[in-house]
Amino acid sequence: MDNAWYLFSAYGIAWIIIFLYSYGISRRQKSLENQIAEMKEALKQDS
Amino acid sequence: MRRWVSIAFEFSTLATMLGALYAIFLYAPIEKTMGIIQKIFYFHVSSAFLSFFAFFIVFVASILYLYRRDRKWDILAQSSAEIGVIFCTLVLITGPIWAKPIWNVWWTWDPRLTTTLILWFIYVSYLMLRKMAGEGQRETFAAVFGIIGFINVPITFLAIRIWRTIHPVVVRSSGISITSAMLNTLIITIVAFTLLFFHLLMARIRLERMREDCGEMRALWEERDNR
């Protein structure tokens, strides 16, 4: 039973790390998309 | 069209990963000596394989950057290094979790473990060098570091053959020391992890390209402001 706990901890931690990294990329992408959209809008209004 | 290809690829990655999990927990047999804890093997070995692959991409992309001086190779090297560090981290976490119930220690300065830790430090240093190096020098320094750092990948891989080690050996000169069901499960898991690697790599490259676009737009903006 103890070894099963180690097994599920290993898989759990692995998935958490992969998920956090993936989420981090997704969040930074969204932030950059918003910045690019804002600048495009501002440049359009300026011209 | 590209959007559909992207969705199909993501779906394939998810489906293959679910298939791998099915194979690991329901298809592969429980190992006789170590019991259920041995199933960490599939994630552990797959992570190691993908980290070596990622660092190989850094090596090749770094050479191509120095040869062509095209930023796209530098972006590929940087993205691959980051994901390689993630997979190497998974190796260094799943390994000790597996080791504790089997060897009764979390860590030992065994050649395979030590060289893997050194490998992790090398590529973490690569990423730190990129952050700290100056504009114009960053890409060149990183490329040189990415080429030299790769030397440790074959050393890590061959550590169990060069030195005496307590780390398990799966591929021996006499053959493969796991059952065919375990081998099939390992292959499926490696395929799933490879698809995951490419999924993360494409996302990371896209992020870097967006960052560049954003930088160019900001430069245009400042140029207008200064007029």
Write a brief structural summary.
The complex is a heterodimer of chains A (47) and B (227). Chain A has 47 residues and is an all-alpha fold.
SSE map:
The complex is a heterodimer of chains A (47) and B (227).
Chain A: H1 2-46
Chain B: H1 2-27, H2 40-68, H3 71-103, H4 111-132, H5 138-149, H6 152-162, E1 171-172, E2 175-176, H7 180-226
Antiparallel strand pairs in B: 1-2
Describe what this molecule looks like in 3D.
The complex is a heterodimer of chains A (47) and B (227). With 47 residues, chain A is an all-alpha fold. Chain A has one domain. Helices cover 96% and strands 0% of the residues of chain A. Chain A has one helix at 2-46. The longest helix of chain A has 45 residues, at 2-46. The radius of gyration of chain A is 20 Å and the shape is rod-shaped. Chain B has one domain (16-26, 38-165, 177-226). Chain B has seven helices and two strands; from the N terminus they run H-H-H-H-H-H-E-E-H. Chain B has helices spanning 2-27, 40-68, 71-103, 111-132, 138-149, 152-162, 180-226; strands at residues 171-172, 175-176. Chain B has a two-stranded antiparallel sheet. Chains A and B meet through helix 1 of A and helix 2, helix 3 and helix 7 of B.
Keywords, please?
heterodimer; A: 47 residues; mainly alpha; 96% helix; rod-shaped; B: 227 residues; two-stranded antiparallel ribbon; 7 helices; 2 strands; 79% helix
